[in-house]
Amino acid sequence: MCRTLKAAFNLKCRCDIDCHKEYRVITSAYYHGAVGALLVYDVTRHATFENVDGWLKELRNHTDSNIVAGGPFYPVLTGRRDSLQSFFQEATDQIPRPDDNIMHTLHLFNLRGFNARETVSLLGGHNIGKIGCDFVQQRLYDFQGTGQPDPSIPLDFLSQMRLNCPDNSKNNISSNGTFSTFTISKKMNVHHSSSDKGMSYMQALSSAVPSGASFDTHYYQSLLRGRGLLFADQQLMAQEKTARLAAYASDDGSTFRMDFARVMLKLSNLDVLTGNQGQVRLNCSHLVSS
């Protein structure tokens, strides 16, 4: 499970497994470059739950001061089956694009059974980690094919974003001479470097806005100030019913964390394979040999 989480989210995580002794000696280097952490324990083994406090203490002692921590608790059932086939294009078509408007984003989530409130809380997960420049290049330099930036971006924020994501259009010219679109999904580099170009929603806030270093509401604070990194994120403010939900930023984050935990549990139960469908794997990227 740790390997899967690292590959999927580029996080450094610790799992309580039978051979966990090798992790007893932890140095700060183990956590270097981590943008978030998931502490996972086995609900069938109470002793593993008792280790969580110790792991959290290690995390706080050895990580950079800006690491995201303090996320909500929510149960996730194990033993989920993986399909024997890959449906890359089908999956990609069901994921909102970085340049999608609010109507299309809500439509795609609605097709999977998520209402507007659940959609807004799920997108709040963007407060973890860094959004790569590939996903904002067109918004900064060629918005909707105009050759200009998105006019809705505040000028000071545009300068900050461009500083973090310089124009690489020369590297994105297709064979017919036109500006190629960003890649929606590509293979993750497990050895992702923290120096890779991109921005986080913590960076999107100015120093005048307190946000802390936790799984809090700084994503929504950014949107309220017009400083959404993705066009699709900032579009949450374009419709009244979703803009109202940005009120997650109005409290200490407890409402957001509660809603996020609830919808993540719902997400974990989406399209579960049963019976003879698929297979349970220890390593999700490798088929279990018969």
In short:
This protein is mainly alpha-helical and 290 residues long. The chain has helices spanning 2-9, 28-31, 46-50, 52-62, 88-93, 102-111, 116-123, 137-141, 155-164, 201-204, 218-224, 231-234, 240-245, 254-268; strands at 14-15, 39-40, 131-132, 198-199.
Tell me the fraction of residues in β-strands, as a range.
Answer: under 5%
Lateral strand order in the biggest sheet:
1-2
Which structural class do the helices and strands define?
Answer: mainly alpha
State the shape. globular
Cα(first) to Cα(last) distance is 21 Å
User: Mean pLDDT score, rounded?
Assistant: 76
How many beta-strand elements?
4
**Helix segment count?**
14
Poorly predicted spans: 1-24, 173-195, 206-212
Q: Please state the CA-atom Rg, rounded to the nearest Å.
A: 20 Å
Largest sheet: 2 strands, parallel
State the share of residues found in helices, binned by percent.
Answer: 25-40%
Summarize the helix and strand pattern as letters: HEHEHHHHHEHHEHHHHH
How would you characterize the overall build of this protein?
With 290 residues, the chain is an all-alpha fold. Helix content is 36%, strand content 3%. β1, α2 and β2 form a beta-alpha-beta unit. It is globular and about 55 Å long. The two termini are 21 Å apart. The N terminus is likely disordered.
